[in-house]
Amino acid sequence: MEEEAMEVVEVHEERISKEPPNIRRLDESVVNRIAAGEVIQRPVSAVKELVENSLDAHSSSVNVVVKDGGLKLIQVSDDGHGIRYEDLPILCERHTTSKLSTFEDLQSIKSMGFRGEALASMTYVGHVTVTTITKGQLHGYRVSYKDGVMEHEPKACAAVKGTQIMVENLFYNMSARRKTLQNSADDYSKIVDLLSRLAIHHTHVSFSCRKFGAARADVHSVGTPSRIDAIRSVYGVSIAQNLMKIEASDDDPSSSVFKMDGLISNFNFVAKKITMVLFINDRLVEWTALKRALEIVYSATLPKASKPFIYMSIVLPPEHVDVNVHPTKREVSLLNQEIIIEKIQSVVESKLRNSNDTRTFQEQTIEPPSSGQVVSQKDSDFSPSPSGSRQLKVPVHKMVRTDSSDPAGRLHAYMQTKPHNHVEGNSSLTTVRSSVRQRRNPKETADLTSIQELIDEIDSNIHSGLLDTVRHCTYVGMADDIFALLQHGTHLYLANVVNLSKELMYQQVLRRFAHFNAMQLSNPASLKELIMLALKEEDLDPVYEENDDLKEKIAEMNTELLKQKAEMLEEYFCIHIDTHGNLLRLPVVLDQYTPDMDRVPEFVLCLGNDVDWENEKNCFQAISAALANFYAMHPPMLPNPTGDGLKFYEKKRHFQNHKDKENPTGDNVMTDTEIDHELLSEAETTWAQREWSVQHILFPAMRLFLKPPTSMATNGTFVRVSSLFGKYFIDGCY
């Protein structure tokens, strides 16, 4: 009986637990604190709301003081029209505002604020004090607020024109939020960034921002009619001098109606991250889709691995903008926004391409030799002087190639080459740089002492003269299979592409140590088979098969060794080997570059034979060197299909000569040669791709990352040459 009673109780409890919970009306203070945490997410949110209120009050000066990143104190002072005494009692109540009175007013709203939530939210998460004076009053008033209501009647006080609002002890009653915002430096930098963005748009307003107790402001701008001057005072001269004005508009009601004007960085600007300042109807917002579209344009149009600076102000009819889509008004929704993005993207791309193509360089007249191998200046005018300008003659010893993308700056411009049908001759920058290439400089840190020692060896062995040459050289063209011709100042150099790429890859491997991205092989590759291929390629007498058993034993031993080291290879070098002895993944040493996979067998054999697995430093150095040799830009396996290399693609064809009537029974078999066009086409494509990689991947990465060792000055990697009427005379090593 007792057991039955217990079962009845359990069933009853189970039924009770499945009943729906009661719905309760939250206390108003709880509702307000929840809403406040959504509107005021961090100190910069409060600063943004207060500064926008100052702008709505037609202020000409806004001063911000911050203590402990805004958690201890935020003080915003302006010289606007102030707040009327009669409005002070309801100033910090929720949904009290002077910006609108009906919902329809949202369709034509022009002010920054409109909900009447910001000040109320601050009073629920901080201590707010307001001091204000309006025009014509003899004195001002000061009042404190808590939870949306006044703590006391407004007190008369001395005041200067405008309003000052202090928010103290922000998030004092939200311990979890306050703990997540302990990094005051991070929050203060966000506030400085906010004020900087506002300062370059509202150029008629003076802005300042400083830490509490600091004598010097971190942001200081004065009212100016020039936006360039505002950017110069806030962001610095290096940005201001590299900006281009841009405009776009559309007034077709069937598609889009907008007007955009702005400033964007040119091809000379270099930065590590994008800075995009966007205002829509004078409201500072973020528009991820437009930002991504412009990033794509910059990455695909310009060769430098840098991020742009973009300022844009877009004006649309107020009824085409929905400003009420985000709690902090950080985002807006636009009518026909896809069309607007497309038009702006097109204008920016055209501006960038034209700015890169219309640069004017001094004309360099080169007298061609009698052999006719050089195109004359009369037939090919690559650098015309501007209309109406006088052409300056440049001494031969001071002629400098200044633009690697200019046809006159390329070696091929001075050679008569036979066009190939499969090679496109489009010089468009968009076509040439059709893929987005992001070249990042990895963090130069290492977890292991041995890796740091190897990096220190590189840093302590830099040749300063070569470093300057590498950083500021201009690519001219490939001189032969190994050497590329480049120019630095008034000197020409022959640079060994294999040595340069090998050293660059070696340094990149060390700096990306344990932080590689992975490159997945399309099919697993057996280590044993790869090693056997490499051993057979090294065999001088492939017909002699006595040592085949020995080769197989070597392959098996190396396979087992690499399987034992698979965990370390995967963790540090992203070389993934499965338990069956198959190679599955390789590291990405240089972004957007894929090595010659025909060299995988040699690489695997090198890992098995040449690595000292007992000494940590020697081990890592050998593996890095093996990866560098594998990723280096060696000449392709197929012979160069130009010059004497063309003979490799000829094949003999035998046929009967039926026209030889005098010797009908004799040996009248004729031999002819024809070109293997399929193999030739493959070779031409491979070699063309290699030169493209040298120009557009190796040399840009080399300028950014390579630290040339002193040995390169004497081992023939760089050979300085002199040019005289198209002929090169070797002066000697660097």
TrEMBL record:
PROSITE patterns: DNA_MISMATCH_REPAIR_1 (PS00058)
Composition bias, Polar residues: 357-390, 424-435
An MF annotation (GO) of this entry: ATP binding
Subcellular location: Nucleus
UniProt xrefs under PANTHER family: DNA MISMATCH REPAIR PROTEIN MLH, PMS, MUTL (PTHR10073), DNA MISMATCH REPAIR PROTEIN MLH1 (PTHR10073:SF12)
Name this polypeptide is given: DNA mismatch repair protein
GO annotation terms (biological process): mismatch repair
